[in-house]
Amino acid sequence: MNNKPKIGVYVCHCGINISKTVDVEAVTEFASHLPYVEVARNYSYMCSDPGQLLIKEDIKNQGLNRIVVASCSPRMHELTFRKALAEVGLNPYYLEMANLREHCSWVHQDREEATIKAKKLVAAAAAKARLLEPLVENEVDVEPATLIIGGGIAGIQAALDIASAGFKVYMVEKTPSVGGKMSQLDKTFPTLDCSACILTPKMVDVASHPNIELMTYSQVEEVSGYVGNFEVKVRKKARYVDVNKCTGCGLCAEECRLHNRIPSEFDMGMGKRSAIYIPFPQAVPAKYTIDPERCLFLTRGKCGKGPKCIDACLPGAINFEQEDEIVEFKVGSVIVATGYDLFDPSRKPEYGYNDYPNVLTAMELERLVSASGPTGGEILLGRGKGEEPYIPKEIAFIQCVGSRDASCGNEYCSRVCCMYTAKLAHLMTEKIPDANVRVYYMDVRAFGKGFEEFYDRVRREGVHYIRGNPSEVFKRGDKLVVKAEDTLTATPLEDEVDMVVLAVGLEPRKDAREIMDLLRLSQSGDRFFLEAHPKLAPVDTATDGVYLAGCAQGPKDIPDTVAQAKGAASSALILLSSGKVKVQAQISSVDESTCRGCGFCVEICPYGAVDLVTVNRMGHQVQVARVNEAVCKGCGACVAGCLSGSIQQRSFKDEQILPQIAVLGGMR
Amino acid sequence: MSEQFKPNIVAFLCNWCTYAGADLAGTSRMQYPANVHIIRVMCTGRINPLFVVNAFQQGADGVIISGCHPGDCHYMEGNFYARRRFTMLREMLEYVGVEPERFHMSWVSASEGAKWKDVVEEAVESAQKVGPFDQFRRNKINW
Fold it and tell me: What is the CATH number of the domain that holds B57?
């Protein structure tokens, strides 16, 4: 028979990564005596062009029909070698890899032991390779649309890129306006661009782009389906305002009985808003929203003689009967741009954030500096009752609050705090010319383009940098005392200041779990979303068709966020513009001649990919299971549950795994 | 003997979490005993309990099953099936004479290379305590 297995085994040196601890010659020699092995070779880099050529030539010249590559992890190069097989006309699924690098040479030092293990791994791979079967990769159409979760700068940039390329974008934003954290910033480092000036045009573009459907005050409830064909369910929360009628005039907010009585989230609780509000003046869309947790009428059913906003609204946009709306649509890809949370400094009680009103977070200072902020851009402190507001003259910044700090679970550097501290320190010297500004730091990380120059400039402007992590902030008279040690001179300090600014770090969002569950994402050790590969696939995830942009993947500054958003957009566009995607070939299939139709697999399948169908078996109508190949994801849960072994996962059949067990279990 | 004894351990790992975690252990050059051999499946839900029995029959002294943390399964529910199946299997194995020290189930995510090293070391150590396992063994190959 033509299909008698002829195996070729290719052992890779990986430079010296493998050959340093594994005797590749001995492994090759050993492999050449394994059953059905026709050729066994080793080469310095199998994944290189000449390495692949070696395999291809042998397939052509020696008629090999199964290939074992003993090199790195299949998660690294399985696709590379599958492609090589396909190029010379061999079915790409006739490939099996033995992981000699990550699982052997890199984790063991004893050459003898590592070589024995390598032999076993190669023998197991060859035993499985013998029984591999050719598989066909089916293609499905890609829905030419993208869902973008999150309307910050990352989501905005990705949306504009994809929409401008001619594809539909659905953007879902949780809050009433797009803009995200960037819209709260006053200036951006190191160029001191006005944040709003560079962001608002993009926000407006998102709202007006014909290819973008913007859903603010909305949440993704459900994502089902698979790459190219995701089905999405979005809850548009009731705003109690008809957005088609609302003109954004703001008369309602002025009439609201809670006018200027509710702390504004946008102003970090320092400014006030009404129960009917837009988050900030440049909000997009400029449509009002009634806060259901604050509005008197919605919480108590009663608002004076009747809600005054209704009378104030000339177009009659206010509608207390409005209900949440569920919208459903299909997309081919998803971009997660959900951003970050700021570290809550009350978790570092030694800095007194909860105790003293003149201990601020950097974002709070950002709002004070902003011309659109609660003080119109003046640095005024003193929120105590009857107290005359005052301008702080002695100002201390404390860096790394909630970053590089294992005691609060964040070992990572938040990457932006050094530079935003420098920026805010500069703004302090600009706004309060006679202010004395000092920065308590651990290390200054000014790594980006123009960062070091900016840091130098700020120091030249008179900002005093003191190396030392303060241990405590406490009150003495009407001053705050920062207790620290200048570690460069080993001098203990008690520094009396008027204001302390905490450079809080970036953390994964508290609701990140919901997104993980929706899209089957994983977290890395820092609890941000995990990318498919830290270097070579930084925007991809383990879920095909789902990409990451911005701080959801890890702390980033604005340029990096925009760059990554463009990367995510490009990845999504590759999928959308090719219009087709190959679906998983290693999926389950049923041997209908032995299936007894018990339906266990139907119940087990998490995707509903298995159904019972009636077939004619020798004149009898019997029920058997059948797999919907477009829906099956190839997890194999049904296989392990099948009582008769009739349902099997291609490339992971019982008969293919058992020889591996026999080899690995049988050798001591 | 127990000083020298190197138990042979077969590990069934899911592609998305623990296999990737074991890759990470490699990339980070963590060192662990060489007597653990990994078989890759797409999901722990694919692991037929009979694979474990078979591994013991073939001569393994210990078996590790490891996948994504409960709730993090790439296929939504696969590791829940695995958890149920192997909780039951562990008791059955004990009943037929396989010491619980030989059977290890753990959850190691793609970012937990160090945890994988710990799992391996623990599995090797506890299998060393109970010594070689020959009761189920079908045949012996002399290498």
Answer: 3.40.50.960
